[in-house]
DNA sequence: CTGAAAGCGCTTACAG
DNA sequence: CTGAAAGCGCTTACAG
């Protein structure tokens, strides 16, 4: 494809009657230039539709002002994932505000492919979203590139990560439902390998135990679920529906909203009254929940804070600031809606 | 921030005992090299953790293998927008498959800012998502950069755009509801400035007219809506609820799913039976719809096809292929679910 | 305040 | 098959 020749600095320097160095100084805003020269250069740039070449600049400054964001997920909803999407929106927004552009990559096979690409692109830093294997972290470390993790799990003490305080959130969920008078709990718990799911469950169960309710006593039934999707929630509920009704559980807690919505849909399809017969409480505070009928009560995840701070922290890392926290935790709060409290 | 010195080609050439030129040839895979030399170079690269510098390469080849995607939207849900998110997921996937990385930008003010950034980054091509002002198009044109538009509207005959066949989709919606026996239609129509909303409405009304039903005869009532969000759908329905019930409309069609969901939620909150009393039909086929209770009948938008083809077409444009279509249309089909047909 | 020169890390004709 | 050289479009000390 033939393109209109992109006039470079040399050309505008020629037109303005100055040297490349001087033209560079006024275009980049670094260094001195007399008002009169400045004027001439700017005019030439304007006239020639000059666009600075960021690639060339990056080559010499060793700074691209580009960030890489990689979302590790096996299944298709990636950017359009209701929670990750919110976080990514915020990352884009915060990056823009700080002058960074972002490369967005997804990785379905937890491979090193996307990471390699971004390394070659010489991004200034990396944001890794969702769970990821240790090999990815080790790989990134090897290249001494600033990076951090969002909403993922790792036992590597070196890596900076931003997460919700899921255990406390789980406890708040238990407390809230208990306060509403519930004593028989049904729980659908997402994959234990995933930090957030397992901590939410732990927090929930622990608090109930403090309140005198346990699995052993039959007051709590936990159904493990290998995935955390809507369909899985639906299927889990379908499979255990008769037990569910038989033992008179009055509250359903799930470790995320998608599971809750799936399970709730099954219940609604079967004509169960929510919340009159069963109260339902999710976790994540995704948009869908608010829109559902009945609207879904949930526990918040501060997607805005996480996205915003991820960029801020990474920026500090890039600029070489020391003493950055390794772990940033966000508080989770119960949002009361129709699925637990009825009509608003 | 001090980084481990990134060994360049020169260094690995030195270690392998060959010239930079030769090292370049084996690393890039372009040009000859004896098996023995190849071996030595590759080993040196391995040993020194060599990562080719894509920035330097781009500078000389004038090809970045980067694509820019800009989503023009005023309000926050951008990447996390249920329809755009799906399209973007697909764009990312298709780009990856063709060896492109993508810069994702959002633009809330319909400004030239994001476009400028990407121009400076020397992306190989641009995908513009959603409606956008003429000035943006004119601006991009000026720089002779390959670009195309997705899901937007323009009367500029030069610009390649990929859209749904919304008019036919609207007609199919009308036909479907009519076939179900409905004769009194209530319609909530999104912003007329937006191509898809206006065409869907046109197609819907036109088909009904052919079937003998019109606004004048009182068989169809159209409520215009300045926005196309869930909340707006809810509010529109709320405002017109008494009329809605009074005149016995049995079918509600909206020009997208979000409006449908909002309106449906209001109806459900008010105890209206769906679909027994009112059938509801949306448009877009977003995930939420299938998850809702009752699940929302809708008309499809081929997000997968649009995203995939956008990248394919742009790739062809970049490679200078001629005779590319200016307009690619995707068929829309009715998806029958509970909100029109009851329990599955 | 301004210019000449070197260099960022590659690729690509061109000789050999 | 391999190497020397030029050059991509900038920035940045360094002189002046």
From TrEMBL, chains A, B:
Signal peptide: none annotated. The keyword DNA-binding applies. CDD domains: HTH_LacI (cd01392), PBP1_LacI_sugar_binding-like (cd06267). The keyword Iron does not apply. SMART domains: HTH_LACI (SM00354). Residues 9-61 form the HTH lacI-type domain. PROSITE patterns: HTH_LACI_1, HTH_LACI_2. InterPro entries: HTH_LacI, LacI/GalR-like_sensor, Lambda_DNA-bd_dom_sf, Peripla_BP_I. It comes from the Bacteria. Keywords: DNA-binding, Transcription, Transcription regulation. This is Transcriptional regulator, LacI family.
């Amino acid at each position: 494809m033939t393109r209109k020749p992109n006039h470079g600095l040399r050309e505008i320097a020629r037109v303005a009657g100055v040297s490349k160095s001087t033209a560079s100084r006024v275009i980049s805003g670094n260094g001195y230039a007399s008002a009169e020269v400045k004027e001439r250069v700017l005019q030439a740039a304007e006239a020639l539709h000059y666009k600075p070449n960021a690639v060339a600049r990056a080559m010499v400054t060793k700074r691209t002002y580009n960030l890489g964001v990689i979302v590790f997920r096996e299944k298709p909803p990636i950017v359009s994932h209701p929670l990750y999407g919110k976080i990514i929106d915020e990352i884009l927004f915060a990056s823009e505000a700080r002058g960074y552009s972002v490369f967005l990559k997804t990785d379905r096979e937890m491979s090193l492919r996307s990471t390699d690409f971004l390394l070659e692109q010489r991004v200034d830093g990396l944001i890794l979203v969702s769970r990821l294997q240790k090999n990815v972290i080790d790989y990134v470390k090897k290249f001494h590139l600033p990076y951090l993790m969002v909403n993922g799990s790792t036992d590597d003490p070196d890596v900076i990560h931003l997460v919700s305080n899921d255990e406390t959130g789980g406890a708040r969920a238990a407390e809230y439902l208990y306060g509403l008078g519930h004593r028989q709990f049904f729980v659908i718990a997402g994959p234990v390998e995933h930090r957030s799911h397992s901590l939410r469950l732990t927090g929930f169960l622990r608090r109930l135990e403090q309140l005198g309710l346990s699995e052993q006593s039959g007051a709590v039934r936990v159904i493990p679920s290998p995935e955390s999707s809507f369909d899985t929630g639906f299927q889990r509920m379908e499979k255990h529906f008769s037990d569910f009704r038989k033992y008179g559980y009055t509250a359903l807690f799930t470790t995320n909203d998608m599971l809750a919505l799936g399970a709730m849909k099954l219940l609604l399809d079967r004509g169960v009254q929510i919340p009159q017969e069963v109260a339902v409480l999710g976790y994540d505070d995704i948009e869908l929940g608010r829109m559902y009928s009945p609207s879904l009560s949930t526990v918040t995840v501060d997607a805005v804070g996480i996205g915003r701070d991820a960029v801020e922290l990474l920026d500090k890392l890039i600029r070489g600031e020391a003493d950055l926290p390794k772990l940033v935790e966000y508080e989770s709060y119960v949002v009361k809606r129709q699925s637990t409290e009825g009509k608003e």
